[in-house]
Amino acid sequence: MKTLHDHYDVLVAGGGQAGLIAAIVAAEKGAKVCLLEGAPRTYRGGNTRHTRNLRPLHIGPLSVLSGTYDEAEYWEDLLRVTKGKTNEKLARMTLRKSAEAVSWLEQRGVQFQPPLGGTLHLGRTNAFFMGGGKQLLNALYRHAEKLGIEVHYDAMVTAIEIENGTFKRLHVGDHVISANAFVAAAGGFEANVEWLKEAWGDIAENFLIRGTPYNRGGLLRLLLDHGAQQIGEPNQCHAVAIDGRAPKFDGGICTRVDCVSLGVVVNENAERFYDEGEDFWPKRYAIWGRLVADQPNQVAHVIIDQKSKGGFMPPVFPATTANSIDELARKIGLDADILQKTIADFNAAVQPGAFDHTTLDGLCTNGLAVNKTNWARPIDQPPYSAYSLRPGITFTYLGVEVTEKAAMKMADGSLSPNIFAAGEIMAGNVLGQGYLAGIGMTIGNVFGRIAGSEAADYALNR
Questions:
Q1: How confident is the model at residue 116 (pLDDT cuts 50, 70, 90)?
Q2: Which CATH class is domain 7-236+397-461?
Q3: Segments of 92-174 assigned E as strands
Q4: What is the dihedral angle through the alpha carbons of 113, 118, 119, 125, rounded to the nearest 10 degrees?
Q5: Rounded distance, CA 140 to CA 58, Å?
Q6: CB-based contacts of 344, cutoff 8 Å, min separation 6
Q7: Domains in the chain: boundaries
Q8: What is the pLDDT of residues 212-229, one digit of tens each?
Q9: Taking residues 229-258, what's their average pLDDT?
Q10: In CA terms, which of 61, 266, 352, 393 is 20 to 30 Å from 229?
Q11: pLDDT tens across 384-393, in order?
């Protein structure tokens, strides 16, 4: 790799949404910017390639969102999924600044689709990109090119030089690049299975990495080794239950199985282990990867009947189907007698009520060791369908601690004057645990804009 210059005003590592936005904001302020993307051009964009939406605060309906989603409700949703493990000051700032996200992106060529209907319950809370994450990336890269931002692919940072908390230069192989300010936006370490095993033990070998294989945490490790203050726990992550037939890496969002709330989930012992109807799916889907990880061999199966067909977004792989529970059990390798009893006990425990998947309908079971609190209907209408599940890791929450100006904190209590962070590499400041659909992209958008602005201000006024 050979850059046009040896020194830049602002140097950005990471070519996903957060890094791109930081680079664009800095360039729009007049800075000379270079962006380093560790992946090949075909795979540029990190986990942004796999996303579909972001979650913005808004008062009143927009062209891409229905109704109102105000700070009070947004904060309550975030507090519920994180169970209070969040920096309230940074989190509330993120929610407020998310109100600008849609218009900021639209002004730079990103297109959105009309509000989403159906059972995902997201038309009011989440703005969906027309064409998904790749369209968003392509639009932002086109805009970056117009601004003269220098972009390099296959440009993984291999070393970094920091003196007394101040960024000096970095290495991409033998090539050395310096800058007045540096933005770290190179993601977490989810594709580094050995690092995952340090946190999870040997069961991490059975995890599938639904995100990019290029997020191995190289830059994060370099920053921590050079005195950055760590935020988050190594075993906290966005962990989703995905189809067990998904590839080891890079399966993306299409491998997610979204019918859990419509059926029952059993482990390899053919036994249920958690409430499938605890809350709306976008507020609970990200706990299921961790739940499955706690089951024998990190495997589970979601079972639905004909009533639920067409009520959820179908995954990329077809279900295993059968005309009886006995036949279905044999097809998916479960004990038929135990599965039949599990289903029969569940069916007998279903209470009277009206099913309504657009609300917390209270249609529940009673008397089971694990009751289902909403959307409980008997599994009694063949053909029956099963999807096998495995833990799918999207991104990790261990990262670097930052301020409201995206400045990186050092372990000695000082602030780096010229190192800023955005995206998954600092998401643990807001997400101590749990996940809320679309908030990863919201964090990347908000802190990308802040980091780019602050980096440019420092670089141009030092």
A1: low
A2: alpha beta
A3: 127-128, 150-152, 159-163, 166-172
A4: 40
A5: 23
A6: none
A7: 7-236+397-461, 240-392
A8: 999 999 999 999 999 999
A9: 93
A10: 393
A11: 999 999 999 9
